Amino acid sequence: MFVKKREAVIGCLVLCFSHLSVAASDLPFAEQELEDPDTFVTITVENDLFAGRDGGYTNGIGYSWGRGPYQTMSETDSPEWLQSMAHAFGVHDDPQHFNAATYSIFQGIQTPSDITNPDFVPDDLPYAGILGWRGTIHSWTKTRADQFNLVLGIVGPASLAEQSQKVVHKITGSDEPMGWDYQLHNEPVFALQARRSWRYEIENGDGHGVDFIGILEASGGNYTSYMAGTYMIRWGLNLERSHAAISVLPGRGVNPLAGTNSEEYYVFFGVQPRYVFNDIMVNGNTFRDSPSVTLKNEQLIYSTGFVWNWKDWGLLFSLAETTTTFEERKGNARFGSLSISYRL
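Structure tokens predicted for Lipid A deacylase LpxR family protein (344 residues):
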């Protein structure tokens, strides 16, 4: 059943993104301002304590880097095999588009609600961690943006999630997590993810404006498979420069325009309904018995926050609330994200 679902998602990925036409008027590349490419680095910390809670998705940390914008995808120096995968999922090397490649190394940690209980808890999320790498190809104009992500990683003890959480809790004086003996087994994971967004300008005056962004995205793999649509509204300065990496969870990517010579800022509110086919952090290991709960397929994510880019620096803070990811628990989960970017 899982294999059939995964094949269906991958098929939907290709159909949704390979044949979509341009839905908004795009300015030719030659009519847009192309700045000299720069290298960016981003540090991101996600934690549910930002939202005043502990348990569930409890912590994440990532280091991202990238370079852009370029006129052609080949100039990004990204691997040809990654470019070929992006082409297969509808991210074309169009000379009318800006292009960039970004990469991330990240760790995510999940625990049940009561981390002081040393016993197995059958009706709560399992202890789980992921250590992963993400490669992303970006292609965008002032009104449309495409992304392809390849995620590779491992869940289980090899993710070092147990050690990371225990060190952080010891430093901060928090409760020691006692149930890591019941975490997921080691398993390599992957996900192919594609996204297309459209930007519609509602109002613009003296650089300040309001815009609306609609996003279609999908993911397929044993890490997670889903299809989703996102609706976002923003208010701020120079919005047309900062939409390329926008997301309902913006801290999980790197903005290839972060840190520019001009000041940019905006506040945003977004909502994303999604249908999730599989999630290893909920379903448990794919080919081995492991702790698990019952996946709730229909999910909803809300997020709000602000972004500020000035000269060489970029700052992002967001708060997200998600409906429950599994049937055994009612109620929502919350976490916050803080990202700091620097242009080298």
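The CA atoms of residues 142 and 240 lie 6 Å apart.
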